[in-house]
Amino acid sequence: MVMKQNREQGTEARGQKLGIRNGGIKVACIFLLLLPAPCSLLPAIDFGLIINQSLTLTDGDYTGYTASAIPWFAAPLGARADVYLSGSIGGEIENGQGNMLFEVFRSELTFNYSDNVSFTLGRHYFRDSFGLIMNGLFDGLSATWDIGGGRLNMGFFYTGLLYKHTASINMSARDNDSMDDDTYFASRRIAGGINWGKTSIFNTPASLWLSGIVQIDVNDVDDDQTTVHSQYLAARFTLPFSNVLNLELGGSLGLLQETGFDVRTGFAASAALQQLFFGRVPGMLSLGGRLATTDFVPITGEAQGMVLRPVFSGIALVQASYAARLHDSLFADVNAAYLFRTDTQTFTSAGLNDQSQSPLLGLEFFLNLSWAPLSDVMFTLGGGLFFPQMGKAFTDESATQYRVEVTAVISL
């Protein structure tokens, strides 16, 4: 059967799409995308180095420390092409065991065929319109076409050369088993996607994005293992009510073909309302929720919540968050979420009551502080608690769970 979730899939041992198993590298990758070059050989050639250190502590079975150096290089190739290269060299310690880690990050060649048509080859970013099906770095070829006031983006990708914990592709029992073995590479899958988006629908501020995704399992499997193919249709709609208030709705329908089982249909949906505040302490309030049925299995398994961190399958949550700029260099965001399960088989975790049929998992809080004393230096401290006592799915003896993350990122 399709893999069952476990708590480890939600921890950093399962990775993040653009990071190496911790939030610190995610911050580092934001530096890769946003920071201007600190030095250059020629005005059009940029390069730099990002140093990252991150520590994660949980009350479960994961303690991790990662230190890495991320060199990057960007340059034009003639009048119409550009090249971007980046990677990571470092080491990690997980539960007392250390090893070196080398990984290729965003590395792409972009060719601008015309003012509105471009092609990208290499390891580059792709995201479906829903944002929870296929989201991250992938190896392949994509094309973008600005047409008719909208944008068409399509790509064809292979996942078998990605680092498995960064890619976080966990769609089957075979994928789940490989997360704990000595292999480096991610599950071997071919994926193709097409996105179309248009702003100012019918001369209104509303925007609409549509996606179609196809995934083919090309792993070698044993007789007792299964292959899992899937297809998805997705949509996202945003409606700004004003300059400070925005509504966003999303949904996806997925088909799942697993050897030995009938074709199954899954559904996922999300909603969010965002309000901006200005003044001495500017900030943003977000209210929303997400739901995924049992047979909705995304390609990339993004963790939901901040402490319990289940994969987005057979899971629902409602949440509220507030992010504020406390000072020129100090930022804070606080998040509260209540988590549900949509069935009693998909999500598994230590402490679950086998006799309980309740969908109520519990309540969690998470606080994150970020300090950027310089434009190229950032320190982050985050911590949170999950209270299973606030639900009915865990045993009465289940203790409060915690998670602490400390990160330092420097761009040179």
Could you explain how this protein is built, in words?
The chain has a single domain (7-411), classed as Beta Barrel (Porin), CATH 2.40.160.100. The chain contains 4 helices and 20 strands. It has helices at residues 7-10, 23-34, 164-167, 173-178, and strands spanning 39-42, 45-58, 63-77, 81-94, 97-104, 107-112, 117-127, 135-147, 150-158, 189-199, 207-217, 228-240, 245-258, 264-277, 283-292, 315-327, 330-341, 360-374, 377-387, 401-411. It has an 18-stranded antiparallel β-barrel. A hairpin with a 5-residue loop joins strand 14 (264-277) and strand 15. The longest helix has 12 residues, at 23-34. The N and C termini lie far apart (48 Å). Mean pLDDT is 88; it is low at 6-27 and 29-41.
Fold topology:
Blueprint lengths: L6 H4 L12 H12 L4 E4 L2 E14 L4 E15 L3 E14 L2 E8 L2 E6 L4 E11 L7 E13 L2 E9 L5 H4 L5 H6 L10 E11 L7 E11 L10 E13 L4 E14 L5 E14 L5 E10 L22 E13 L2 E12 L18 E15 L2 E11 L13 E11 L1
Antiparallel strand pairs: 1-2, 2-3, 2-20, 3-4, 4-5, 4-6, 6-7, 7-8, 8-9, 9-10, 10-11, 11-12, 12-13, 13-14, 14-15, 15-16, 16-17, 17-18, 18-19, 19-20
Determine the structural class based on helices, strands and strand pairing.
mainly beta
**Outline, from the CA principal axes?**
globular
Q: What's the level 1 CATH class?
A: Mainly Beta
- Tally of individual helices: 4
Number of self-contained structural domains: 1
The major pleated sheet works out as: 18 strands, antiparallel, barrel
The average pLDDT is: 88
Low-confidence stretches: 6-27, 29-41
**Portion in strands:** over 45%
Radius of gyration: 21 Å
In N-to-C order, the SSE pattern is HHEEEEEEEEEHHEEEEEEEEEEE
> What is the CATH fold-level name?
Porin
Tell me the number of strands. 20
Termini gap:
48 Å
* CATH architectural type: Beta Barrel
Helix content range: under 10%
